[in-house]
């Protein structure tokens, strides 16, 4: 990570769901929770990095995290980001898979390197990149940035890297729904079951087999793009880095871009220009069509995620009103794909 100063249908989806078993990723959650709750001090740094013991460490809390706590630590030994895993995130995140994704993506120059992976403490430490800015949604309105934005996405999708996790969008939505049910959290104002049935039908129409999945990030919000300053570009492998690989896995590449569009929420013309830059005009209409069909999936996924966080997270954040608009937008997009493409579910 790089950070700065946030009932199944028959077929492949069923197979993927049946083979799913929750994994802890080696985390001792009692230790992780204690670290999450305590003040982050130099002594904590020495515990995590004994080789830094006795050296003055500068600590600053980083903004932006709504799942985990993030800190920047600096000393003569290095400059790092410490991620302390959020409470009960092992319900839907496997940290071994995340660490594998970071290591593989750093090899192709789109992620910084892991310094230490300490799942027993609920911590991952990575290199911090200081010569950069974090993108905002407004940056996705600047057409001059589109080549830089799509470059790391293209690298990920064409890397040939096989990530550990299979991220089937329909299956992941159903997993989230199942977790919410296990938490005995009831939200009758939302037709969750009915919406998932519609996504089951939509997934059968899209019909992309898991054998065609590529490595994907699956959480391409603006905050996860780090643009290297022009004067510092010679020092780095890429002009743009991507952070936060918790949800990375083998997925449909169209889902990855649909997720990005549902986060940055740019006008339609900007979406088209970004897709043009991504596919260089090759099968543009087909790529845009599949991206549009995938748009309801990330919104429902993050809507369910927000309700889960509302019930488990110790971080102060309005998860309910973060997720509610995503549910409403997903329903609107289901209407839009019927109107534009005649796809009715």
What does this structure look like?
There is one protein chain. By secondary structure, the chain is of the alpha+beta class. The chain has two domains: 12-128, Phosphorylase Kinase, domain 1; 133-341, Aminoglycoside 3'-phosphotransferase, Chain: A, domain 2 (Alpha-Beta Complex). Helices cover 45% and strands 13% of the residues. It has a five-stranded antiparallel sheet, sandwiched between helices. Strands 6-8-9 form a three-stranded antiparallel sheet, with helices on one face. Strands 7-10 form a two-stranded antiparallel ribbon. It is globular.
Overall pLDDT score: 90
Shape category: globular
The CATH superfamily label of the largest domain reads Aminoglycoside phosphotransferase (APH), C-terminal lobe
Strand fraction: 5-15%
Q: What's the order of the H and E elements?
A: HHHEEEHEEEHHHEEEEHHHHH
Strand order of the largest sheet: 1-2-3-5-4
Total separate domains: 2
Question: Biggest sheet, open or closed, and with what strands and sense?
Answer: 5 strands, antiparallel
The CATH topology of the largest domain is given as Aminoglycoside 3'-phosphotransferase, Chain: A, domain 2
Q: Identify low-pLDDT runs.
A: 1-30
Rg (CA only): 20 Å
Question: What fraction, in percent, of the residue positions are helical?
Answer: 40-55%
**What would CATH call the class of the largest domain?**
Alpha Beta
Gross CATH architecture of the largest domain: Alpha-Beta Complex
């Amino acid at each position: 990570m790089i950070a700065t100063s946030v009932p199944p249908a028959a077929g492949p989806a069923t197979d993927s769901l049946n083979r799913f078993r929750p994994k802890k990723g080696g985390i001792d959650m009692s230790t992780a929770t204690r670290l999450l709750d305590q003040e982050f001090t130099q002594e904590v740094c020495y515990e995590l990095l004994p080789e830094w013991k006795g050296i003055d460490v500068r600590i600053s809390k980083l903004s932006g995290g709504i799942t985990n706590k993030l800190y920047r630590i600096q000393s003569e030994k290095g400059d790092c980001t410490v991620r302390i895993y959020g409470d009960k995130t092992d319900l839907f995140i496997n940290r071994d898979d995340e660490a594998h994704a970071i290591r593989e993506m750093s090899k192709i120059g789109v992620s910084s390197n892991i310094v230490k992976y300490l799942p027993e403490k609920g911590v991952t430490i990575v290199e911090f990149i200081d010569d950069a800015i974090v993108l905002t949604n407004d940056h996705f309105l600047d057409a001059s940035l589109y080549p830089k934005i799509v470059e790391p996405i293209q690298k990920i999708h064409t890397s040939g890297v096989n990530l550990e996790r299979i991220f089937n969008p329909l299956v992941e939505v159903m997993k989230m729904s199942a977790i919410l049910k296990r938490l005995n959290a009831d939200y009758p104002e939302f037709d969750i079951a009915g919406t998932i049935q519609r996504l089951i039908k939509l997934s059968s129409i899209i019909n992309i087999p898991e054998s065609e999945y590529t490595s994907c990030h699956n959480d391409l919000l603006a905050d996860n793009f780090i643009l290297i300053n022009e004067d510092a570009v010679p020092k780095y492998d890429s002009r743009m880095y991507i952070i936060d690989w918790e949800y990375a896995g083998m997925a449909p590449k169209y889902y990855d871009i649909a997720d990005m569009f549902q986060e940055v929420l740019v006008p339609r013309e900007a979406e088209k220009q970004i897709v043009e830059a991504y596919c260089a005009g090759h099968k543009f209409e087909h790529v845009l069509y599949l991206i549009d069909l995938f748009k309801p999936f990330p919104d429902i996924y993050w809507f369910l995620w927000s309700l889960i966080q509302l019930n488990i997270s110790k971080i102060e954040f309005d998860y309910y009103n973060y997720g509610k608009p995503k549910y409403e937008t997903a329903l609107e997009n289901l209407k839009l794909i019927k109107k534009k493409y005649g796809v009715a579910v």
